[in-house]
Automatic annotation (TrEMBL):
Domain of life: Bacteria
Region annotated Disordered, chain positions: 163-187
Composition-biased stretches (Gly residues): 167-179
MF annotations from Gene Ontology: calcium ion binding
Protein name per the record: EF hand domain-containing protein
Sequence ranges assigned to domain EF-hand in this UniProt record: 118-134
Keyword field: Membrane, Transmembrane, Transmembrane helix
Native species: Eilatimonas milleporae
InterPro entries xrefs: EF-hand-dom_pair, EF_Hand_1_Ca_BS, EF_hand_dom
Any Pfam family matching the protein: EF-hand_5
Transmembrane segments: 12-32
Length: 187
């Protein structure tokens, strides 16, 4: 019986090196297929229509406050007003520091805005107008053309960016925490 090359390689090569070689070849073979469905690398792949629909429905559930099938700045304002009422546990039409403390769990945009920044009139409480003035960075990051309407194309681009590990530049968008310079959509 003659031994094949693979039998010879397997008998002379430690198992760990053989495993690394096989894994490396598999990764290399898979990496060169940017046209496979759902591939998120560099935006080159095509996202299946059913995946686009699922992402759009998820986004609508989050941002479409009036249920009209579109995501707009008006929806953000409505959602902010509803959140304010929910947080105002004592019903005095303002938020105390304690009430405001829970906001970042409800809306991540507020993570970057401390009490002193939002209480712009230094009254010791936050009014609805002050609350709505906080930029909705998540919405602004999706609405890339700044027209206050999120389109399906913008949702797909945002989803691809997220699937690729966030921002294509590898860090935050210009404008610091929360992404690119957020537009004030709450007033």
């Amino acid at each position: 019986m003659s031994a094949s090359i693979s039998d010879t390689a397997a008998s002379t090569m430690p198992a760990s090196i053989l495993l690394i070689l096989i894994v490396s070849m598999t990764i290399t073979a898979c990496a060169g297929k940017p046209d496979r469905p759902g591939f998120a690398g560099n935006g080159a792949g095509r996202m299946p229509p059913e995946r686009i629909d699922a992402i759009r429905e998820t986004m609508l559930a989050r941002f479409d406050a009036d249920g009209d099938g579109a995501m707009t700045c008006a929806d953000v304002t409505t959602a902010r007003s509803e959140l304010f009422v929910k947080l105002d546990t004592n019903g005095d039409d303002s938020l105390s520091p304690k009430e405001y403390g829970a906001v970042s769990f409800e809306d991540r945009s507020f993570r970057f805005f401390e009490w002193n920044t939002v209480d712009s009139d230094r009254s010791g409480s936050i009014s609805l107008a002050e609350f709505k003035a906080v930029p909705a960075s998540r919405f602004s990051n999706i609405d890339t053309d700044d027209n206050c309407i999120v389109t399906t194309e913008e949702i797909v681009a945002f989803a691809r960016e997220q699937m690729a590990g966030g921002n294509p530049t590898g860090g935050q968008r210009p404008g610091g925490p929360g992404g690119r310079r957020p537009r004030n959509v709450g007033v």
